[in-house]
Amino acid sequence: MHSKWTVRVAPLLTLILLAPVTVSNADAAAARPESARPAACRPLLFATFLQPSYAVFQWSPARFDEELADMTAIGINTVILQWTVDMDARQSYYPTPGTAYPTAMDIVGPLLNAAGAHGAKVWLGLGNVYSWQAHAGDDAWLTNQLVVDERIADQLSAAYPNRFAGWYISNEVDDSLLANPTTARSIQRFFTTLSGYLHTHAGRAPVMAAPTYSGLHQSTTAFAASVRSVMGSLDVLDVQDGGGSGYIAPSDITNWFRALHDALAKTPTALWQDADMYGPDGAPMNPPALQNDLAATCGLVVARSGFSFTSQMGPADLGTFTFYEAYRDFRTAVLATT
Description:
By secondary structure, the protein is of the alpha/beta class. It contains 12 helices and 12 strands. The protein has a 9-stranded mixed beta sheet. Strands 5-4-7 form a 3-stranded mixed beta sheet.
């Protein structure tokens, strides 16, 4: 699991990746799974989540440009900004006309500018509350969250027309919430209502969320069925693979994603893998282990993301090229043989 119960928080800096190779970001929700492509599996990252953090708050436009240059050089050309409003800190990360969550600093603008300069695309997150899972069965609380997210979407759509690829809902749903009928019903209403609203904005840009099964509260088939039932209104489910937990092996990842693939096969929802890029100790995952986790979903997913480039791979972030070069060489080998 990428975080303790709430939002994914990487141990070093805090960013997430979703990098595309053969799939266009704009068309990701409609892309064919690997099993439907003639080419052999290419278990590569397609994008990254960028999580607002103290380190990122210090970035200059040049630093954003450097990060995007490093990402796109190894095929990671999509960034998911995990949220644009920190509701706990009561601050926004884009120039907002509102006073409820005043602007603390502008992350969205420099990120979109750097992405545009390097041919990358951006998905924008909405509002984030770290302890939201404690309120997952509270319809009144979720209604308030819904209103805030809708206003954020209104502002982002107006401020950045035709400049971003999709929406990300930062409320991460785990298997314990899905196993509880009360919370599952409340979450289903929340996601269905919010995704419907978002589909009326930004040219019906796709909507994504990132559930996780790493609590192991459900069987593979039960989790897959719950995800389909509760979150089936979304265009992309970027499921966290749990590989950094220390107790989920590549064979387990295959089993979970096979169940998810089968459950979502006849639906319009695209399945992505969100790979942990860190090990149980929080340090960058051993490169062969990451490669094995990525290969575990061959034939089962449309695309892959990772958590996270900035915290676990970026040379400007870690002060070393070790993990960056290991992935670059892996990618080169994969592309040369498939």
